[in-house]
Every structure is written in structure tokens, then in C-alpha cells.
Amino acid sequence: MPMTDREFVRHIIATIAYRAAKTMRGAPESFAAFRPGPTSKTPLQIVAHMGDLFDWCMTMVSGEPKWNTAVPQDWKNECARFFAALKKFDDALASEKPIPFDLSRMFQGPIADALTHTGQLAMLRRLYGSPMKGESYTRADIVIGRVGADQTPADPKFEFD
After folding, report:
1. Most buried one in 55, 133, 150, 152, CB count within 10 A?
2. Cβ-based neighbour number of residue 37 at 10 Å
3. Element containing residue 160 per DSSP (H, E)
4. How far apart are alpha carbons 99 and 60 in whole angstroms?
């Protein structure tokens, strides 16, 4: 049975949660402040921005799109804020309430931006000297609705260096 547009976007959100959790899990505390260049954003700033992106999605869902830049908290709390924003957005998608904003435009803006930033976090982990293992993501245990930091850890037979 084919997925509805909402289900597909929910799968994308679960994919972001899975991949982002992998970039955050096991990161040394000092990683949050890592800056590879003088104008580079830190991982903390990137995660804060990712939370802002999904807060923005929620304003789109409400029919009144509005951007807000939050003041970054510490790493642990900012990661938690990001996953809370993902959950709130996923819950809105799971409801039957009409969404007055085009999902494809939501994808091309904030959702795609979050995918880009998730990749940046993975790259920064490598630059920092604390890389995560690569993974065959087509085999990953990604489940619609599972959008928190607690994800199924990668199966070692599907990970690689």
C-alpha cells in the first residue's frame, strides 16, 4: 500500500531523527564548542538551528509561518529541544488536522535544511577526531513515529569504517 504524503514526510522526519541521533550519540562534551575555522558554526549552534527549523515547521502547520532564532542552551538541553521539536512536528503530521501549508515547500525548506545540517554534524565529528561509523542506511531500523534521541543502535554488520 503506498504511503500518503503525510506518512512519507513522517518517514523523512524519522530518518532525520535516526541520523541526527547517531551524530549526537557518544560525542564528547567538548564537541559542542568545536569550531574548525574562525567563521564556522559550532555543533551546538547547528543543533540549535535544527531545533529552530522544526519550530518553524510548527508555525507553518498552524498556518502562520514565523521564524524565531532561539538562544542556544547547553549541548544536552539543545539536543533534547531538537528532538522535542521533531516530536511535536511528527505528532502534528500524525493527526488528522488539516495542514494549511504545502508539505512539498516545507520539505524543500526547513526539512531539507535539517538533512544538510545532520550531514554537517557527521562531518564535524570526523574533523574533531571522534567519527561515528558509516552505515548502510537502507538497512537501518527507521520507524515512522520514532523521532526521539533513543533510536535502535546500528547493527554492527551494517556499519563500516
Report:
1. 55
2. 7
3. strand 159-160
4. 8
Q: Are 111 and 57 in contact (CB under 8 A)?
A: yes
Q: For the chain, what percentages of helix, strand and coil (3-state, to nearest 5) are there? A: 60, 0, 40
**Distance of alpha carbon 120 from alpha carbon 76, whole angstroms:** 18
The enclosing H or E element of 135 equals strand 134-135
Tell me which amino acid residue 104 is: S
**Residue 34 has which C-alpha cell?**
568545536
DSSP codes joined into one string, 67-96: ---PPP--HHHHHHHHHHHHHHHHHHHHS-
Average pLDDT, the chain: 95
Residues 36, 37, 39, 40, Cα dihedral to 10°: -20
DSSP-derived pairing of the beta strands 159-160 and 134-135: antiparallel
- Under the banding of pLDDT at 50, 70 and 90, the label for residue 25 is very high
Q: Report DSSP state, residue 139.
A: G
Instruction: Give me the mean pLDDT over the 84-93 stretch.
Output: 98
Which of 21, 109, 7, 15 is CA-nearest to residue 59?
109
